[in-house]
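To: structure desk
From: M.T.
Subject: fold request, one chain
Message: Could you run this one when you get a chance? Sequence is below, nothing fancy, just the single chain.
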Amino acid sequence: MALPMKSFSRVCGLSKFLSSSRLLRHVVCCNNSTVSSAKDDSPRTIFSGIQPTGIPHIGNYLGALQQWVQLQEEGHRVIYSIVDMHSITVPQDPAQLRENIFDMTACLLACGIDPDKSILFQQSSVSQHAELAWVLGCKATMARLKHLPQWKAKSGPKEEGGVGLFTYPILQAADILLYKASHVPIGVDQVQHLQLAQDLATTFNYHYGQYFPLPKAILGETKKVQSLRKPNSKMSKSEADPKSRIDLTDPPDVVREKMKKAITDFTSAVTYDPDTRPGVSNLVRIHSACTGLSYDEICRQNEGIETAKYKFVVADAVIAKMDPIRTEILRLQKDRGFLEGVLREGASKARDIAEKTYSDVRKLVGFS
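Reply: Done. Structure tokens follow.
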């Protein structure tokens, strides 16, 4: 929603974009792993979801999953969903989808999501997601949905996408509002979708009385991790070239080989300049996210090292950070019974909340 919706001066490149949006007043910065607002210290309910579309890559981990764990450890009520209903907006092999759900569960647990501190569940196990989506959809307009990024990006120039793809943002809004979430960790590309959730909550409240809180955005400070082969594009599971990304289950030798093939440029020095050196800057960004070092510290420490050698420095940093996670994923994948139990218990906890919310909605709209 993946995911994972982040004083604006600390969010590079977002200030100008957000200043013209109604979302401006709702954004809270994730600063030093703490969700905070000078004027709001009320308890948080945090919701986020991730599609089960294969093993996550380091971009997913550094950009979202690492933040999910941080939020969990801060004592908020956190609810994380494997959003399998969203995943079938594009064709899916049923057998592969079932495996992907368990693989994603293993990955989230290995990354540090703790079922005793968070609610982790499979979206389709809680029917109220779809039921609330219908109610909210009756308050949305086609004109509004046509301008949202999910539809524009995936329906093609002739707008030939399916109805599920078109209404995807409404289900996304239902995911959030069903748990009356106060905060949602998102990426920049999901800002408009969160704004739709806010607007649908506002519209519902106008017609039926004040009920849903307006969810605020948490925009993380970790920048996007770019493709290793196309450094001007975001790292993606859907990119055909597997060398474009580092998956969380890649063994050390594969990580080194992929990093060796990463596209840089013809300048040998290690510098951070995203505009003119996107490839090298992407490596510096990954190195920083894995070690906690600043970009300046990294460039100083690697002064005099050619980029060809620097790739292996970054590979070692990635391996040190990710290999324990890989080992735990492989262990958990072998324990299907445990994974099923985690999802079953999480769905029960999520359903307790969802049933109360949707029971209220039924009364408010006149169903009961």
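Reply (cont.): The longest helix spans residues 336-365. Let me know if you need anything else for the meeting.
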